Amino acid sequence: MSHPRDDRQDDLFRPSLEKIINLRHPLVRLAAEIDWDFLAGRFSSVCRLGPGQPPLPTRLVAGLFILKHMHNLSDETLCDRWVENPYFQYFCGEVVFRHDLPFDRSSLTRWRQRLGEEQIAALLQESLSVAHRTGAIETKDLERVVVDTTVQEKAIAHPSDARLMHRAIEKLVDLAKRESVELRQSYLRVAKRAAIMVGRYTHAHQFKRARRELKFLRTRLGRIIRDVRRKIEGDPALEDRFGPLLDLAHRVRHQEQRQRGPKVYSLHAPEVECIGKGKARAPYEFGCKVSIATPATAPKGGQFVLHAKALHGNPYDGHTLGPVIADLEKFTGVAARRIHGDKGYRGHNYPDRFKVWISGQVRRVTKAIRREMRRRAAVEPVIGHLKDDHRMRRNHLKGRDGDRINAVLAAAGYNFSLLRRWLAELLRGLLWILCRHLSQPHLA
């Protein structure tokens, strides 16, 4: 059984962080409000102590995830900022200032894969608990919710048939070289030129020539696929190694521009879906759909995100309402009394249809409900902040698990940024009241 390192002797002559930093800083106050034991209990459930190097402290891991999505930082930038910023170190549980990283950058990737969406959702749950304890949000704000969906785009290039087929040729040839499979011909030079000419001919509206170059690419890709299959036939190890890439290349070769059903839009992220939300500036977005729930009221601390979940398969918005509200009520422990959605939720599958109000609805609308319906649009700027300020604009995490994890972390980072601002405003309010009290003359 491994034990954590005891390096307190090295810190004996170093000044503590509490003597260096401002203890009234919002990050310090936020660290004092978070229940780190709750997060440690959730995160430690996936840790198995045994021989070898002990795991990182759970407070360090949770603090890094919060800081990363609060400040919209990449893993590399987060590591650089952590070494330079004493407030980051204090927030993550350090006692003295450290001049080196106690972890490797790849540790963040491994912890995300180890925890998964279910355990990382504890960060979002704790953000709502802190908001409730500090008065930023009340129980009545959890009973009236607004639900909407958006698209979380994947970090892929814009898909085109020429690009996909050229990329499939490159990957097959590269894998064949690494596995010492000698191909009859690689076609790398002529395939690159054909992919370039497709773009040029299409830009010049010379579509017959573009189709000819595209047919050339498709023919060469088919030759490489057949050549690889002949060379690896009868070798189970090579068949397993080439199998997934050959299947993707086969789908890319045979798919057409306007075909219905699932298509391959990226070879390194085959789970990507094409979603059209009716936007003039972006008719199609490539990623996955994400459901966002916020209060229909105006909480004191701001429009917190109550629930965030990535939804794969490009489902109809109305068919996601039932599972999302059930998950939200389980998550917050408060039953939803009123649910507001846009016209995309018509024909929803929520069991109690009298709790759901769609924008533009006339029946059963009272003055109080009409006021809440006017606030339905408040979810739109929340989605904008999640995308632009908290890393949901372009998801760089791998696979469908990465889609689900990034959506939850973006919501948690947004909530903690609101909490940081709320605690700073509370502190300014208390200081203003104290200064005003001291400035008033005391009566004898």
From TrEMBL:
GO biological process: DNA transposition
Superkingdom of source: Bacteria
Protein name (Swiss-Prot/TrEMBL): IS5 family transposase
Residue stretches making up the Transposase InsH N-terminal domain: 16-114
GO molecular function: DNA binding; transposase activity
Domain Transposase DDE: 362-417
Matching Pfam families: DDE_Tnp_1_6, DUF772
